[in-house]
């Protein structure tokens, strides 16, 4: 028997774009047919995009998705296809349609509904009951939906029904630990069932979530047949040999750099690009302070959108160092972005003139420092409004965790690329970006982020000789404690037992707990860890638990 050819659509299908998604499926089906594929496969909820959230509560939206899947079925002469869509039958199911010969031949429903982390499937869907198997060119193909493969039973049921090959369609968000876990699960399912497995994943940014693609193929003996690159849109060609249940990739793109930093950087770039483009903004604006967070944010924005769509604004005050001024201007010129300098001193002084009579002779404190930040926030928001460029907030996860950020000041912005990136990771990414640029140009002295900015002690520059470590533990120590408390959900006693200073642990944890109200008002940003603030980590603002 000749090898069985599949076309796997590792593409972005945006939420709510039913007509555009349907047109893309139709175009990719035509390419699959022309390339000799017997079966074209598309991700979870291709038609609606994932996650459609409360759009699923609108009957008109569900009807539109149903009409779309019916119209695609009519275009399947000479090709079979598996396409994800929301299936409404009085109740709503997360479904995959098997299309062939101009008809919807079969529909299967997702059986395991995740309701943890960023997932909320049980709010919208009812669970399916059975695993589906379809015959294409004599090959028995089982097909499952995302979470189904993380449980043993659905794959076992497909194998018991005679499946030789199991196709899993997914909308699985990326985080820095996901790929290794996926591979472990798929290898286990292949060994349990003896079936070859194809894991096709969505790619693209959707609000606070990024999908990496990273599709996988596993042979029936559990060996990895192929890995698709992360954050790359591609029609992936695969051949299945039923004699030994092996899969073979045909000309899959290859990632030049698969390091942790490279993949994380790509996730952030994709998150920015898709958030800006899908929401129809012409470009972005950010405050460029001469510090490492804004410097990395600028580099990410330029890599995502190109320099012509990025504006940087330096807003110096009396405490702004020459190093900051030189670093900001140098980076803006090096990256080729529009750059402006606005002296905030006169505006800050005007605020102080108005407020001093009401301060009642109180001594200066963080109020005056925060007012500098809020003055900058007012300026940036005005520029954003006037020029129609979305404002990027530049704060990182370490700052968001302990509240080392000013509401309506440096927290201003509609999107926060570094919101789920710890400060120590900011440094690693910055060094990686410079190294990548040097490899690209062959110039050891080249950079995207000024080396002096990377090497300097971090500072908010809101008073003389200020550094972050005046208020916080060293970032290596802080981030280690935060990761244990946030990602690992360890108790204070467990963290102390691991060797961290008791007073420091109590102080850091208190800061995390009392600053929930700030995080609730922060901009969305891409989820890249296993426990992101926002839709994933949801703690009460008002709580007696300490």
Fold and architecture overview:
The chain is of the alpha/beta class. It has two domains: 7-251, Nitrilase/N-carbamoyl-D-aminoacid amidohydrolase (4-Layer Sandwich), CATH 3.60.110.10; 261-472 and 515-520, HUPs (Rossmann fold), CATH 3.40.50.620. It has 17 helices and 19 strands. Strands 5-4-3-2-1-14-15 form a seven-stranded mixed beta sheet, covered by helices on one side. Strand 1, helix 1 (18-34) and strand 2 form a beta-alpha-beta unit. It is elongated, with a radius of gyration of 26 Å. The N and C termini lie far apart (66 Å). Keywords: ATP-binding, Ligase, NAD, Nucleotide-binding. Deamido-NAD(+) binds at residues 370, 399, 518.
Task: List strands and helices in order, with pairings.
Blueprint: E1 4-10, H1 18-34, E2 39-41, H2 59-73, E3 80-89, E4 91-100, E5 103-109, H3 121-124, E6 132-136, E7 139-145, H4 152-160, E8 165-170, H5 178-193, E9 196-201, E10 203-206, E11 209-212, E12 216-218, E13 224-227, E14 234-241, E15 246-250, H6 260-278, E16 284-287, H7 292-305, E17 310-314, H8 322-335, E18 338-341, H9 345-355, H10 366-387, E19 390-391, H11 397-402, H12 423-441, H13 451-455, H14 475-486, H15 492-497, H16 502-514, H17 516-520
Parallel strand pairs: 1-2, 2-3, 7-8, 8-9, 16-17, 16-19, 17-18
Antiparallel strand pairs: 1-14, 3-4, 4-5, 6-7, 9-12, 10-11, 12-13, 14-15
Helix pairs in contact: 1-2, 6-7, 6-12, 7-8, 7-12, 9-10, 14-16
Binding site for ATP: 287-294, 394
Function: Catalyzes the ATP-dependent amidation of deamido-NAD to form NAD. Uses L-glutamine as a nitrogen source.
EC number: 6.3.5.1
């Amino acid at each position: 028997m000749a090898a069985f050819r599949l076309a796997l659509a590792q593409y972005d299908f945006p939420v709510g774009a039913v007509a555009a998604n349907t047109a893309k499926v139709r175009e990719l089906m035509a390419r699959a047919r022309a390339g000799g594929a017997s079966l074209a496969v598309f991700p979870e909820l291709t038609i609606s995009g994932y996650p459609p959230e409360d759009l699923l509560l609108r009957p008109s939206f569900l009807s539109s998705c149903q009409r779309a899947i019916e119209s695609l079925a009519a275009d399947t002469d000479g090709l079979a296809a598996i396409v994800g869509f929301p299936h409404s039958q009085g109740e709503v199911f997360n479904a995959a349609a098997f299309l062939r010969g101009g008809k919807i031949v079969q529909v299967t429903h997702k059986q395991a509904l995740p309701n943890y982390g960023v997932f909320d499937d049980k709010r919208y869907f009812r669970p399916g009951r059975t695993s589906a198997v379809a015959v294409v060119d004599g090959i028995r193909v089982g097909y499952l939906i995302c979470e189904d493969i993380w449980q043993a039973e659905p794959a076992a049921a497909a194998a018991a029904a005679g499946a030789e090959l199991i196709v899993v369609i997914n909308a699985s968000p990326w985080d820095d630990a996901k790929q290794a876990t996926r591979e472990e699960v798929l290898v286990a399912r292949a060994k349990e069932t003896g079936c070859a497995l194809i894991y096709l994943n969505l790619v693209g940014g959707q609000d606070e979530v990024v999908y990496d693609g990273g599709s996988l193929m596993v042979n029936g003996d559990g060996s990895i047949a192929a890995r698709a690159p992360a954050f790359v849109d591609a029609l992936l060609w695969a051949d299945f040999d039923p004699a030994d249940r092996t899969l073979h990739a045909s000309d899959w793109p290859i990632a030049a750099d698969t390091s942790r930093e490279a993949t994380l950087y790509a996730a952030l770039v994709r998150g920015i690009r898709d958030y800006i483009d899908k929401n129809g903004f012409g470009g972005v604006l950010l405050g460029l302070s001469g510090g490492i967070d804004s410097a990395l944010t600028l580099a990410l924005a330029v890599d995502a959108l190109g320099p012509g769509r990025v504006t940087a604004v330096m807003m110096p005050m009396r405490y702004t160092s020459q190093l900051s001024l030189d670093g900001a201007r140098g980076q803006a010129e090096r990256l080729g972005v529009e750059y402006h300098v606005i002296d905030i001193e006169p505006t800050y002084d005007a605020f102080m003139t108005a407020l001093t009579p009401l301060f009642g002779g109180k001594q200066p404190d963080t109020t005056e420092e925060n007012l500098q930040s809020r003055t900058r926030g007012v300026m940036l928001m005005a520029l954003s409004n006037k020029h129609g460029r979305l404002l990027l907030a530049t704060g990182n996860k370490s700052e968001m965790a302990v509240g080392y950020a000013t509401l309506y000041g440096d927290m201003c912005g509609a999107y926060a690329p570094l919101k789920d990136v710890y400060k120590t990771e900011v440094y690693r990414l910055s060094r990686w970006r410079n190294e990548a640029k040097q490899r690209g140009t062959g110039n050891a002295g080249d950079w995207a982020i000024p080396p002096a900015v990377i090497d300097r002690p971090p500072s908010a520059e809101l008073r003389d000789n200020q550094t972050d470590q005046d208020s916080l533990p060293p970032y290596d120590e802080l981030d280690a404690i935060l990761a244990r408390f946030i990602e690992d959900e360890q108790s204070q006693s467990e963290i102390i037992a691991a060797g961290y200073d008791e007073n420091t642990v109590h102080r850091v944890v208190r800061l995390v707990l009392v600053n929930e109200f700030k995080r609730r008002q922060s901009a969305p940003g891409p989820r890249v860890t296993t426990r992101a603030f926002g839709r994933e980590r949801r703690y009460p603002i008002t709580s007696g638990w300490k």
